[in-house]
Every structure is written in structure tokens, then in C-alpha cells.
Amino acid sequence: MSSVDEVDALVTAVKQSKKYGDTSEATIRELAAEALRRYKKPKQALKAVRTQLHSIMAPYLGDPVYEQAAERLTAVFATHDPAQIKAACGDILHDHLSTRERLPILDTFYDEIFRITGKPASLLDIACGLNPLAFLWMGLPASAEFYAYDIHEPRIAFINHYFALQGLRPLAKVQDIALQFPQERADVALFLKEMPRFARNYGDLGRPLLEALNVRWLVVSFPEVSTHGGRNLVSRYRDFMHQLIAGHDWPLTELLFEGELVFCVQKEIGD
Q1: Which member of 44, 59, 96, 198 lies 3.0 to 4.6 Å from 130 by CB, making a disulfide possible if both were Cys?
Q2: Is pLDDT of 109 > 80?
Q3: How many CB atoms lie within 10 A of CB 270?
Q4: For the chain, what is the mean pLDDT?
Q5: Do 76 and 54 form a contact (C-beta atoms < 8 A)?
Q6: Which domains are present in the chain?
């Protein structure tokens, strides 16, 4: 079997699995090629790919049943009741740990961020998870261009379903931002609580990612405390963020919310 055939076989095996079959094929293919360079036996390579996918996908953070969630959104939008729509979005945000932790501060979270960056006409939500469903808390018009990137195919389909119901263009896409940095131009890029896992999985790629983003503002956040044990991480992640942008003349503003440390970084000065 050729190396190409081995990679194809490994990709097929992963795509047929219940747990990881909905992952971006580009991501699986890259991991398969790397695993086959490291391991001679296909079973060892398959195990390595699954282990890496577990770290990247973080299924332990939670997901809704997307078909049921989509049906619920369709029904609630048909009521044309803003309160019911916002409540349904909040319930779905509760299904993922990252956005669940943000719910208590969501009423002020984007107001304070956009007070610094200005309200964006366009934004990128990188490794978005379920965060696009926080659109109603952002106070942005339906004319806003909202790009969202994730490697979980059902999640992206669901987000585009929500965007269509909300009157937004369906600009969510299945894209592994570690393999292909977002190219779209925008006012603000959101990278919320993902940098620690990104650094764990991809090493020093965080700095090149931030440098490559074609935006006026970067909004990068970190958890205030560790998931297990509640250890305060503010000092550690403050130092990490300053290391990520060291050498760049990018003004930085820090916001500390309950549970989340946010950095607003101005990449472009002036109009």
C-alpha cells in the first residue's frame, strides 16, 4: 500500500467513527499523515490520530444535539418573540462549557469590549464553538459580516442555520485555522479561551496566527481560573499574552471579568 493509500485508509477509518467522523477531513488528513510518519503500524497511527483529535475537539466541553437544537431555533424564530429567541439561544450556549461559563457576564461582556474596539461592521470568530449564538448580546445589526470558523461539521451547519434565521449571511465555515489562517478582512477577530488549547496542540503557532489575521483589533481571552481546582491563572496568561505580541507596537487593553481575562489588541492605528 502506498503512503497516499495509507493516509486515505486512515482518514476513512476516522471518518467512519461515531466520535470523530464529523471532524473536518483536512484536519484528519493532516493528523493521519503525521501519525503514519511516526508509527509503522496502522493501528498505532489510528490511535494517535484519535488521541490528538480528542485534544483538539475537546468533546468533554459539551455539545447540543444539533438537529434538535436547529428544530428548536426554527420554532422559536417563528414566534417572532425576541425574549423567547434570546432565551433559546442562552439555553443552547449553556450546552458548551466555554459559553456556559460566560453566560453570567454576557450582558456586559461585549458592551465593554466594543467600547474599546468600536462596534464592528465585520468580525471573525475563530475556533468559534457555539459563541456565534451570542450575537443577540453583541448589539450588532443584521448587516454585520460574521465569519465563524470551526472544524466540527455539524456545528458549522447549525451555526449557518442560526445565521439564516437571524437574517445574517451564512458565513460560518469548516476550516482548520491551524492549517489555513483566516484570510477574510474584518474589524475585530475573536479568539475566546482557545489560545491555551491551541498552544498545547500546535506549539508556537499562536503568534503567527495573530500576526496573519487581517483585522483592526484582536480580542483574545483566557480563563481566569483552571477548570479543575480553581487555580488563578491571571498572572500566567497575562505574561503569555505579552509574549505573544512582544516586538509589535500593538496597544493592549486588559479587561478582567468574573471567570475570563480579555485582551483587546489594536493591530492597526487610525482609520
Answers
A1: 96
A2: yes
A3: 5
A4: 92
A5: no
A6: 3-57 (1.10.8.10), 66-266 (3.40.50.150)
